[in-house]
Amino acid sequence: MDETPLAQIKEYKMKILLIAVIFLLNSHFTCLVGQTIEKPYITTQTPITLFSTQDGETEINTFSNVKPYDYKLLSKDSFTVIHLGSDHPPIVKTIYGTIPATILGTPSMAISSDGRYGLVSNHSWRPEGSHYDRLTYPKGEPVRNSDITSEMLKMQNLSPQLSDMISVVDLYDPDHPITDRILLDDQVTHILAHPDGKRFFAMGAQYFFTYKLDGNKLVELARSKTPNGVGCFWIHPDGKHILAGRNKNWGNDVAIVQWYSIDGDRVIFINDLDIDSSLNTEYKNSGVILRITPDGKRGFICQRTMYNGLGFSDILIADLTLNKPRITEVIKQVGDGLESFAFHPNGKMAVATVLEKSKNSLAVLDIASNPPRLLYHLDAAALSQGVEFTPEGDKLFLGSTYNGRIEIYDVKGEFELVKNQKFIKIGFGHNSLSIGPRYKKKK
Length: 443
Fold this sequence. Notes:
This protein is mainly beta.
């Protein structure tokens, strides 16, 4: 018997409804498959390694519970190796007592281009009359170069606080052994990898040193006499120039920014950077920390790297495209003491760490505007030091001295940073943070 027209209509509607349900379920499933499901741990898009060093001498500020503080150092220097990737929780290991490290310098060190080795410098300089200058060290332990024998250099447990030394750390081996140590006759405050991926340059009070790694051993290629003074530097992306900040007489003289050329393995002083007369700013004491933008066009300089409660400091900006580079721009009153910079891959956003005694902040900058400008400040843990963006620019890492952690900020849009509640624990006394690729063992 044939179906009635009414029955046919009902059957047709049921088929349409079934097709609609199938379509919706399929769309929902496709959306879930294409969606990045957030992991319950910190991830990065590509495998990277973070290398943090920690200075035990920072116990003079907060860590010791001896009241009043007796200036007898108990804490050990340490380093933390952190491997990050897209499909696993952070792999973290902190090792105490195998390197010396100091916060009296710059908040970045060197990682080899393949990510295998981390290089960290230490020096014997302490500001005369400072809290650090008053410290005493455990009896019987080597403290200076003169206390160290050739046999001691082969030991793993060696952390002479007042040595002038460069240490090489294996970032791949799970035990992270020290593969080499060299003693220096200069106070080296900073070491960086050259853009050629083969050499390393280190800045001392009297010399620039040039090195290469021969296997896991450091080989000196050259040393270049330079205008003396404590400071730090950054290598230009062209590999042919260096921008450096130096303070000849810490505490009694202003820091000066200088321009150098790299000729083969040697470093040659060219000139001091003048400040354009149209700018209402000046060089100040301790303003030695700086960084060059990834495009090589500008250098950002901390006017003062110590907080003092007497006024806010500026960010000085050097034009490095000029035949004779000079300071041509300034971002006024960014904070009471500035420590370090990081530049986002978009070429528009940069951050500076702002030093304050009880709490820190991040200053977020728009460096694409004309002139560059301060956008806002964001909360950060006390005495933050090293700061780095991921290569893709989706995260920012910030090391905290007093809190013993690497804080994470998620990047939203072109200028927005959102503090992630997750963080990575490291040793107490963070003083430098470096980022590099995760080493892949050759087959």
